Amino acid sequence: MEVECLALKDLTSPRKKSFPLELEEEEDGGQSEQKENICTDRRRSTPLKSAESPVPPFLIIRKGSTPDLAHITPIKHTVLAEPWTPTANLKMLISAASPDIRDREMKKVLFRPIENEKEKPASPEAAVEDAEVEDTCQFEAAEEEDDADKKPSRKQKSLGLLCQKFLALYPDYPPQHTPIWISLDEVATSLGVERRRIYDIVNVLESLMIVGRIAKNSYTWYGRQQLEATLEDLQRRGRQQGYHLQMELSTEAREAGQGCEDDGVEGDAGNAGANRKDKSLRIMSQKFVMLFLVSKTQTVTLDTAAKILIEESQDSSSHSKYKTKVRRLYDIANVLTSLGLIKKVHVREERGRKPAFKWLGPVEFQNSGNAVTQPGVTQPITREDIINLKMSRHASFNIAPTSVGVQRQVSSAPSTPRREPTGLLNQPVDYSIKTSSSNAVHRLNFENITEIRPTAAQQTPACSSTLPPSSTHRTLLAPSPHPEHLFTNSASPHCLAYLPSLSQPSVVMLYRTPEQPEVQRSSGSEPEEGRKRRREEGEEEEEEEVSKKKGTSGLEECDKARERAEVSSRTSPDRPAGLSREQALNDISYGSSNAPAQPSHYLYVPNNAGLNGFNFLLSASQSPAGLTLPPSSVPTLPIPYILVPSSALPHHHHYPLVASGLQQQGSDPHNKLSFSLPAVMSNAHFMVGTAPFGLAAASDVGRSPAPSPSTPEQSRMYGSAAGASRSPSGSWQTVSVNTPEPLTPHTPKETTPSASKAFFQTPGTLGSVVSAVPAARKRGSAQRRLDVGHPPPTC
DNA sequence: ACTTCCCGCCAATCT
DNA sequence: AGATTGGCGGGAAGT
């Protein structure tokens, strides 16, 4: 088959982004329904739709908007402050192209595959399903095409999809030292959704330390750097709190029918103390994850989770509470699914099948490896135990969450983001980077900046430290055999790279042409994310076997292992199996070992406007001019895509890129953009037109051991980014490489299976988007206060 | 009919 | 006081 596109499918979403005005107009907006789209307002407001006069409007807009933004996002301001930057140019150029068309086309063509992947299981395999899928696709396509006509369809607005889009904006493994700022406002705007939805996503991401709150409207993106450590920590906490026991009991006991009492009773008491935060999605998310981590089967039914959570939350157990809890769990599950951490399955129980989720993430952590996986197995559980557990749990309950809460509070202070004592926050905000060039700085200034260089040199051996053998490479420049190093977004099938200088959060996507079926299949090149929903149905069966209730220890282990293996092999879950994952990555990023020669394509997507305006940079090694891509893979659309012949990408050199699609504008002559993709990450520069942009490279490896202040455990996981990666085939090189290893020396902990990649950019910073519209907040004004009080929690 | 979960009201919090 | 967060649950889309 031909090329598989990656994953950004989601990006496609119809909404528009912020930008400029010009671009967007009609389409999705068309849907009346969508209240969410903020853009709408904007659009209307914006007089100019026409793409033509790109520049001026652009600028103007930005400026204008800036002020508004100012109050909103402090951070941003700073960034924004800078007037114009090369980025702007870029944007302009890009935007110049007719956005609408571009977008659509892009979506249709490029993304479609992604979408498909996403939704369905890997393409090849799922022949059967394909039929279905296609339908779906077509369906979707149809919808998208005529924006006007169709409405978004509920699925398209799903939290999971939205989350994927969100995730696609940032690198899984950002360079440690260069924090990526996220402005919720901007993100919401760019994704075309109302803020409320972003909160949902961010809250769960925060629970996993994928993002950290800095201040109002400001978050820092940590990516998956700390994920493993966080999970480990959660696992530990889960055990401490006796969740494993509960899991077992829950089923039985509850079924027995008593869960209520405790709940009710405690609830009241607990309530008093508990505030809003205790019910927080964030906390719920952590608990939910804990359940998986301590579960033998790693499968948790919604029912069980809801019940357990209800208990804890001290809510009275009313049916309504249950329902509410379940709703929330779905929300959480959606984002976890997008992260590739869980997947939906059904468990069969005596009475029938129940919806459940299966953990796809890591379960065993090196450090703790110890007891880890066998949580509940041995102990016979007694009612007393449970009680004790509960008690302890409650007591501690707050603790866990608290930490978060506290953290937040601290952070919530209007503080200047950079300043905060890192120690308090867990966030690794390491401004004190030893590197000569502080990334932080770059980061902040992204737009203007020209180059960020990761100092490769920096990597101090000392720091780097311990790593698992596998992750030996921390080499910056050297082509690493590991695909991981590429800036791939592990979660997603595609690799993403962020080009910092680009105005908007730009994403570079790599997708390889999958020649080999096997690759796809095995590697699961498909994004896990993508597959989720669709596959649920299909795959579920497998999972079903899992009976939650009992697991024999030994067996279960095997089972688990088996399952995991399966999963990894079949779906290419990124994170779950280290190896598989790596492979997957490899496949993805390089043609994959399997597919040796295949060049991968680059997609450069400047999402300035929120993903609507997609700009792609595709590198097709095959196609000389880059123009000829496999038909299937690349549409001849007027879409603005930039093709970069892989051959063209020598390491360390700049190469000309061919941009197509831009022409659409007609006015724009610039078909060529020159990019310099740095072989070396550190030095990578992105050039657009004349202006060079610096790529933020993931830069070297970790320089400082623990950038993050956070708990030691957490800090361990950094992958450093190293710069250049190149495909084995040598087809191209790009950017970032990371060292896979965890930097922290001290704990030899887990190997980070994935280390990763590096590019990134701060979307937030970019702000461009933002600028465009403050718009969306209807709520503020609208906020209506009805007198209606709500009833106190019933009991 | 049941499952999933979007949407946005509105209260708690923060500025 | 106004803005930001985010709990919550109605009710509709999807199955």
UniProtKB/TrEMBL annotation:
Residues 154-223, 276-361 form the E2F/DP family winged-helix DNA-binding domain. Residues 719-731 have a biased composition (Low complexity). It comes from the Eukaryota. GO terms for biological process: lymphangiogenesis; motor neuron axon guidance; negative regulation of DNA-templated transcription; positive regulation of transcription by RNA polymerase II; sprouting angiogenesis. Residues 16-52, 402-426, 452-485, 514-580, 700-760, 773-795 are annotated as: Disordered. It is found in: Nucleus. The lineage of its organism: Eukaryota, Metazoa, Chordata, Craniata, Vertebrata. Coiled coil: none annotated. This is Transcription factor E2F7. Gene3D superfamilies: Winged helix-like DNA-binding domain superfamily/Winged helix DNA-binding domain (1.10.10.10). InterPro entries: E2F (IPR015633), E2F_WHTH_DNA-bd_dom (IPR003316), WH-like_DNA-bd_sf (IPR036388), WH_DNA-bd_sf (IPR036390). GO terms for cellular component: RNA polymerase II transcription regulator complex. It comes from Labrus bergylta (ballan wrasse).
